[in-house]
């Protein structure tokens, strides 16, 4: 296994590819803009998950765990990726409406994260792989200790904790007004669930978030998106059926090339400009990606592309 990251001395590939594609296919600009059905889709998932909460107040812990893994995890991970969509303002043209909808989508997740996520995620797009800025890249501590199949399995199970806590330790940002609103709204919902339905129902929400972000098919996108399995390629797309449940986040090369296009239209980018994507390595199974990551001795947290911040941007 490598003992350091892959270091690139060129700019990230998406800005230049976006320029090339738009010069050849300017009609892609017609795909820019909000998804008119985003509000409806988010409301359906939130209400379905909150209704499920009301049915589990007397359930056994085994039943709660089973329902959380095979049902609730899909709903909460869908909402996490809805928040990802909203961080790009892809539900409404007015940014503040997207922020409020993100706080609403956050409710079944159980932990306030939508406002903070946007701050760090937009930096991931603007400074992909840049050392000290892109918090999507694992830390040196993670990479030093996650070195075999056992430690990688544990890392995958708890990867949501690493994903969420890494930026707070390595590049903390002072919380602002909107983080406070996110916190108050979330704690109000959590308290209401505990008061009305009991701790078991609240535990169901937390378990749905935790197991859905760990050793779970949908969580394979955390690894598939940017972990380097093929030299010289740092972003990978997934063209499998789970895109239907994940706001098409699998179209990840397309998403980084055109972050202003909603997930529901990303497949059209590949249809319009297939020559730019068919030659790139891609996946059809997120579960297979997790298996490859755990079992391949040459792959680990160091399997990410990093670059230094250009002098002109310092």
Automatic annotation (TrEMBL):
Q: Membrane-spanning residues where?
A: 61-83, 145-165, 202-223
The text of the family note is: Belongs to the fatty acid desaturase type 1 family. DEGS subfamily.
Q: Which GO terms describe its biological process?
A: ceramide biosynthetic process
Q: Does the keyword Glycoprotein apply?
A: no
Which keywords accompany this UniProt record?
A: Endoplasmic reticulum, Lipid metabolism, Membrane, Oxidoreductase, Transmembrane, Transmembrane helix
Q: Which GO terms describe its molecular function?
A: sphingolipid delta-4 desaturase activity
Catalytic reactions on record:
an N-acylsphinganine + 2 Fe(II)-[cytochrome b5] + O2 + 2 H(+) = an N-acylsphing-4-enine + 2 Fe(III)-[cytochrome b5] + 2 H2O
Question: Per its UniProt entry, what is the enzyme's top EC class, as one word?
Answer: oxidoreductase
**EC assignment:** 1.14.19.17
User: Is this entry keyworded RNA-binding?
Assistant: no
Origin organism is Hibiscus trionum
List the membrane topology term(s): Multi-pass membrane protein
Q: Which GO terms describe its cellular component?
A: endoplasmic reticulum membrane
Protein name per UniProt: Sphingolipid delta(4)-desaturase DES1-like
Please list the residue ranges annotated as the Sphingolipid delta4-desaturase N-terminal domain.
Answer: 1-38
Q: Where in the cell is it found?
A: Endoplasmic reticulum membrane; Membrane
Q: What is its main location?
A: endoplasmic reticulum
Q: What does this protein do?
A: Sphingolipid-delta-4-desaturase required for the biosynthesis of delta-4-unsaturated sphingolipids and derivatives.
InterPro entries recorded for this chain?
DES1/DES2 (IPR011388), FA_desaturase_dom (IPR005804), Sphingolipid_d4-desaturase_N (IPR013866)
